[in-house]
Amino acid sequence: MPSVFALIMNPDQRRPDPAPLPIDLVKLILVGLAAWVVALAVTWIQYRAGSGLLQSVWTCVAGVTGGLLALIWAKVTRPQLG
Predict the structure, then answer these.
(1) CA 28 to CA 21: how far, in whole Å?
(2) Tell me, what DSSP letter sits at residue 51?
(3) 33: number of CA atoms within 13 Å, CB side?
(4) What sign does the dihedral 36-41-47-50 (CA atoms) show?
(5) Amino acid 82: pLDDT
(6) What is the spatial distance between Cα 38 and Cα 46, in angstroms, rounded to a whole number?
(7) Which long-range contacts (CB under 8 A, 24 or more apart) does 69-76 make?
(8) Which 3 state secondary structure label does DSSP give 76?
(9) How much is the pLDDT for 1?
(10) What ranges do the domains of the chain cover?
(11) What is the pLDDT of residues 9-25, one digit of tens each?
């Protein structure tokens, strides 16, 4: 097995990269989006009860917004099957 330095100097000696795993990106984003929505609900309840920070609520709002943008991106760039 060649050393790390030898592989850096001669990348042709590397083994080929493995094939990417087939995943459903939309489902993965939906799971993350659901986690942000739950976190938003929890932080909103904590804020309204007086034991939470408004900054944590806005962080969750940003997470939900990012998840929605990622969902739109995944649907637009998804390859057509069939």
Answers:
(1) 13
(2) S
(3) 15
(4) negative
(5) 40
(6) 12
(7) 70/29, 70/32, 70/33, 71/26, 71/29, 71/30, 71/33, 74/25, 74/26, 74/29, 75/26
(8) helix
(9) 66
(10) 23-82
(11) 888 888 888 998 888 88
In the numeric block, which tokens belong to residue 35? 């986690």
Which two tokens mark 64? 């939900």
CA distance 13 to 22: 27
Give Cα 78 distance to the centre of its chain.
16
Distances (CA, A) of 58 to 10, 14, 41, 42, 81: 48, 45, 11, 12, 37
Q: How does pLDDT run across 23-61, given as a tens digit for each residue? A: 888 999 999 999 999 999 999 999 999 998 999 999 999
Using only the alpha carbons of the chain, give its radius of gyration.
Answer: 21
Q: Which amino acid is at 44?
A: W
